[in-house]
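Hi, here's the filled form for the chain we discussed.

Project: internal
Contact: R.S.
Residues: 524
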Amino acid sequence: MTARIGRRGLLAGACATLVAPALQACLRNADRPPVAAPAAGGPITASSGRLRIAQGTDPAGLNPLLQTGLVEASVYGNVFDALVSLDAEGRLQPGLAETWQARDERTWVFTLRRGVSFHDGEPFDAQSVRFTIEQMLEPTVASPIRAQLGAIERVETPDPHTAVIVTQRPFAPLLAELTGLMLLPPTYTAKVGPAGLASQPVGTGPFRFAERVKDDRIVLEANGQHWRGQPLVERLEFRPVPDTASRQAAVRTGQVDLATNVPHEQVAILERDGVEVATRPGIQALYIRLNMRKPPLDDLRVRQAIAHAVDLDQLIATVYGGRARRLNGPYPSEVFAYDVDAPHQTYDPERARSLLRAAGVGGDTTLVFETPRGRYPKDDQLVQAVAAYLAEVGLQVRVQVVDWAAYLEKVQAGQGEHLFLLAGTNRTFDPHFTIARLYASASPFGRAYYGNPEIDGLAERAAASLNPEQRRGLYHQILQILRADVPAIWIAQLDDLYAVRAGVSWRPRADSLLWLHGTSLRAT
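And the returned structure, exactly as it came back:
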């Protein structure tokens, strides 16, 4: 490719090793016993202090092939490494692969970093790459990443330090998508299985797993032998605090050092108390999924009515204090091929009532609207506000708040209710990530709630095209179809707001992940 993939400038200078110019543009309950870490592969050199992080929910699991959400990846992303990584601004940089080049349009050669070991002492080499990719592609593993990287045909390992990835066809998003594929230790993974890896992860990352007490804490300890250099903090503690007020109070009182999902009305209060609020536009696209398999949402008129019934501008102004931007599609403008000229859905309650009458849907129809609490900023408040708008056009809505882990398992199994709240987190900055995972039939999630052969064909063509302008045009067609079909209501790109105590040196990333290798602490 001759232009950018994903975030503007994503690959500028990052693909200098490519041999094909056409490919150059080219991731609480202290009484409960903790889960102990596997045997360590070496000593940890002492570093400084303990960093305590409060997130809105406890991760559903820590197996990077099975759990890919932002809360989960913000923990295990510090335990594992990928072949290719992103810097804080979303630009490609070497990971466990020091260099890579395209031998031809289907063949990529990765030169692997030498002298790297997993935390249990197992060496990292080309077999680790092949094992991980084969596990990801294995249908019985049911990895959601398979929807994004299913174009990989095979991995060749000519020597321990070289991995050759061969795709079925030209595949433009390969490098971008590999940033989200964490490398696994073959021997350990085969021994403990997917569940064991989820509860006791072993990677090559800058921190190693130490313990977990479900719904209380996850503890990681510094890996003094990491190839990037020693982390600047000795210990990370991730704590789930679903209640927004409690999470912010924990920062102000010094119980935690860093907290996510700061509500806009708390910014001035936190800053008055000497707590910094760090912010930048997030990569999450907050949206309401409409289950097209569940009547009456199988009727396009009903989905259109729901879309017209909600005043999204007012929601952004009130619930989020304007710290968000309207979206006209399933990903924000930082992602390649965002269609800046596409219109937004209009707020038109009379049109919504007319559409419901035409569809024969009246006040005796009850829709179930599910949401987690604490996973997204003001998630439960947002859902209540949307339910109130729907009631105004004659729809009865029953709101159900569900624990995050159970919620995620339910929606991923295709058992979502009429409406449910999610956020698409496009951490690769390439539209393939979102379309393949959420809307195309290559993904079980896409098949369960949508399924459109036209989308499938266009998505395949777009991924296979090495012409960036052709890709852009194909994704614009996809977005146009999605807006017409209304499988979701795309609400907003939220700003990421973090509460950071004095003495913590950390800044938000473009991909919204909590990467903590370079974070430091000083006495205050």
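Let me know if anything looks off before we file it.
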